[in-house]
Amino acid sequence: MIRSLTLNTRLFFRGAYLSYVALFAWLRPVTYLASKVVGPLMQILFFALLGSFATGADTIDFYVIGNAVHVVALSGVFGVSMSIGGDRWNGTLPYLFGTPANRLAIFVGRAIIHVLDGMVGVFLGLLWGVLLLGLDLMQTDPAALALTILVTSFSTAGLGLMLGALSLITVNVMFVNNFVYFALLIFSGTNIPIDRLPAWMQAVSSGLPLTRGLAAARAIIDGASLPAVSGLLVEELLIGLGYILIGYVFFRWFEIQAKRRGTLDLL
Amino acid sequence: MIRLRQLVRVALLSAEMGLRHAATDAFVIFAVFVQPLIIAVLGLFMLRERGGDYGMFVVVGSGLTGLWSSLLFVSGNAITTERWTGTLEVLVGMPTPLWVVVLGKNLAHVLQSLGSMVLAYVAASLLFGYPLTIAQPVPFLISLVFIVISFVCFGLLLSPLFIVNPDVQRFQNGLEYPIYILCGFLFPILLLPGWTNPVSYALSPYWAARALHAAAAGEATAASLALDWGLMLALGAAYIALSAFLFKRLLDKARRDATLGFQ
């Protein structure tokens, strides 16, 4: 049992490292800079300026924090789903499904480094907010904020894992990923307060990652303590675990179906 | 004259092929229709606080974001796509200049992306119930014609630029929002620092947004329209001159280094 645990742990971290390295496009400095630094900065600037034009300059923090935290979706949605889908596009999925390796370790391990990468993106986004848009973090408990960003990045990565599992059977995964990324701008409270949305949209918001994490982050930056937002963080964590579970069920089901129908090479 | 007719024929054929290809491309459909629609929904919710009739303002602004996304990702990759599909060498070897083929593709993509404005209009009127009227419809429509011309010229500049300098193409993802910001699509550039204004003035989408917003709101005058249309044409001419240099440089270098088909 200890040997099995050791093997699976090694598989988990090795798989996480290799799947991140495999995203060659993002590891080129220029591409990383464009996608993970400049792009999010421009999104924050655009929505902060639009928001201040819409609701007044004194509300700019709402949009800065919202879009800075929303950056987790870049790693959580695109990075994670591409790590799963990459095996399909590179033709290594049959080999992966041919191994006896623990599927949960393989599946979830793909997300771990993207969770950390997502956190880096958020910290950069908040830094831009402080340097360029006057965001005040003096009331913030840094440990509470770091934990909030970690939980939010984790839950968003859970959504990415589910999308990644879906990418094994659809060719239009980038359409879906892009749609989810942009839909989160509407539904997660990034740019529109949740209570201003119609009831049906609020219902959708409540089932998405990022919604509660973002609310917690805003509260913490406003001076709230960790216990005050712990309920939100627990719910956010549970949402993420739920998406991971759904994604894992899809992942295993697709494997079983592919083997049963002999379509592994067609995946 | 015959030569001109032949070039026009090739451009129109290229436009037709471009439209057919883009019609089923999920990425194009997202960039041109879905993303601008999401931005329209965001804009309509956010600007609702401002009061007044901002429906048409958001429709125009979000439509322009669709136009730019199409130009950046679809027209900008016009040559790159041919390289990926292995047809670039054939196109370069033809008697017809490469820029004619690219011009046709740009025309198709720009016309297709006008649909994003139509979709935003439908969303604003049906989903949000905004009473949408264009106060000055004739100047609005004429402005659209000038916008098509200037955007096609801008696309002619982007596609060779991405090939001549691949690092610029790697920044493609980061070039969407800067144009939305600098060109005043959804908020005036008065919100920006003064030193960015010359950059805005050098971009034809800025004058496009100015003309459309003014005509939609009924604030366009003969002088303002003349300025907007004139500058769209002048900048279009400048983009063409620059693109001519880039096309020549691209082809000379590729022939010299034998790298035409290389990724």
Which helices and strands occur, and which strands form pairs?
The complex is a heterodimer of chains A (267) and B (263).
Chain A: H1 2-21, H2 24-27, H3 29-55, H4 60-70, H5 72-89, H6 93-98, H7 103-133, H8 142-166, H9 173-187, H10 199-206, H11 211-221, H12 226-261
Chain B: H1 2-23, H2 26-47, H3 55-75, H4 78-84, H5 88-93, H6 98-113, H7 115-127, H8 137-164, H9 166-170, H10 176-182, H11 197-201, H12 204-217, H13 222-257
Helix pairs in contact in B: 1-6, 2-3, 2-7, 3-6, 3-7, 3-8, 3-12, 6-8, 8-12, 8-13, 12-13
For the biggest sheet of chain A, the summary is: none
- Shape verdict of chain B: globular
Overall morphology of chain A: elongated
Give the helix tally of chain A.
12
**Residues in helix, % of chain B:** over 70%
Overall SS class of chain A: mainly alpha
Low-confidence stretches of chain A: none
Question: What is the ordering of alpha helices and beta strands of chain A?
Answer: HHHHHHHHHHHH
- Characterize the main sheet of chain B: none
DSSP summary, beta strand count of chain B: 0
Helix content of chain A: over 70%
What oligomerization state is this entry in?
A: heterodimer
User: β content of chain A, as a range?
Assistant: under 5%
